[in-house]
Specification:
The protein is of the alpha/beta class. It has twelve helices and 15 strands. The structure holds pyridoxal-5'-phosphate (PLP). Pyridoxal-5'-phosphate (PLP) binds next to helix 4.
């Protein structure tokens, strides 16, 4: 393989619920969830059933044809947006969903884009042009011109950058890869007002914050506003590769026949898994439990020596540390059988499956506390 992921030290072989097993037989509690992707954990019966039934019935058809799972999932997503004029384009990943939004924004007749510093929107050349992390961008310049990055959470900086030539503004409701950075409450609404004033498309990249992760279906809903475009992936496929770009409102541009496409996007198997995941989350009120686990994690983790801050919403949580030892702490947790990651030098991120239990949450808190006592905090 290419060296782009380095050389992983763990090879995972199987999983059930939140527990994964590596090739040596060691078991781990998966508190990263494939980076906010395995919303129902591993080998969940409803996903296994949906996927097995679908692959045994109709596996792939190309987008020359529609199919019942794709139609049902699109209808479900439309319902979740609360807008019967919303329209869905399915793809396979977050980068592709953002590429679709970027391409769609050209239909406004404008070409300038404003995004935020440290944001993450994917690795393909268009999505990378939106991404605001120099370390990921710099080796691949020149990227798309006309993309400006301003400080996240700073509405004044955004006001200076946005004007009548701006096609779209793209923002993560909570910046995930940057270390679970939550903007001041009201920022998203201010963005909405600003974009409406200038006729600019407001795109919320909910790839990491979508599908119940933060305690609502899409990560922006607390502010009671709607963007023009939502992008989704990660949790959307219940562990299968699936992305979506959703336009809202009848004024939002739409792709005309032939203007965009992808072979696998909205594939029946991935769509059936996505539908099963959304139905299970709804039926079992997993967003309610995500909110109560957020409270518990914030209180208990916040009281641990060395923890400076517990950020995030629902089950997307960033644990701020009082030094740059997140990587060695993540290593210790892994030795002790808990998988997390360190999106920055002083942050641990957790994004466990929404089916996590109170017992597993408490186990995590206990082991985390013990590892904090052992780690060299510098
Ligand atoms: C992961 C992520 C992406 C990219 O998704 P891929 O499926 O890896 O292309 C885009 N935006 C956000 C907010 C993400 O977290």
């Amino acid at each position: 393989m290419q060296g782009n992921y380095g050389v992983p030290t763990i090879t995972l072989k199987s999983g059930k619920g939140l527990v994964v097993t590596d090739t040596t037989g060691k078991k781990y509690l998966d508190f990263l969830g494939g980076i906010a992707t395995n919303v129902l954990g591993h080998a969940h019966p409803v996903i296994v059933r949906a996927v097995s039934k679908q692959i045994a019935t109709l596996g792939h058809v190309s987008n020359f044809y529609s199919h019942p799972s794709g139609i049902a999932l699109a209808a479900k997503l439309q319902e979740l947006t609360g807008d019967n004029t919303s329209r869905i384009f399915f793809c396979n990943s977050g980068a592709e969903a953002n590429e679709a939004a970027l391409k769609l924004s050209r239909k406004t007749g404008r070409s300038k884009v404003v995004a935020t510093t440290d944001s993450f929107h994917g690795r393909t050349m268009g999505a990378l042009s939106l991404t605001g992390q120099p370390s990921k961008r710099n080796p691949f310049k020149p990227l798309l011109k006309n993309v400006k990055h301003v400080t996240f959470g700073d509405i004044t900086a955004m006001r200076k950058a946005v004007n009548k030539k701006t096609a779209m503004v793209i923002v993560e409701p909570i910046m995930g890869e940057a270390g679970v950075i939550v903007p001041p409450f009201g920022y998203l609404k201010q963005l909405r007002d600003l974009c409406s004033e200038h006729g600019v498309l407001l795109v919320f990249d909910c790839v990491q914050t979508g599908i119940g992760r933060t305690g609502v279906w899409f990560g922006y809903e607390e502010e009671k506003i709607r963007p023009d475009v939502i992008t989704l992936a990660k949790g959307l496929g219940g562990g299968l590769p699936l992305g979506a770009m959703i336009t809202l409102g009848s004024n939002c541009p739409q792709f005309a026949p032939g203007e965009h496409g992808t072979t696998f996007g909205g594939n029946p198997v991935a769509a059936s898994a996505g539908l099963a995941a959304i139905e299970f989350i709804t039926k079992n009120r997993l967003m309610v439990s995500a909110k109560s686990f957020e409270k518990r994690l914030k209180i208990k983790l916040g009281a641990i020596r060395g923890v400076t801050e517990v950020r995030g919403r629902g089950l997307l949580i960033g644990i701020g540390l009082d030094g740059n030892y997140a990587k060695s702490l993540a290593g210790k947790l892994s030795e002790r059988g808990i998988l997390v990651n360190a999106p920055s030098e002083d942050t641990i991120r957790i994004a466990p499956a929404l089916i996590v239990t109170k017992v597993q949450i408490d186990k995590f808190i206990t082991v985390f506390k013990e590892c904090m006592e052992e780690v060299d905090r510098g």
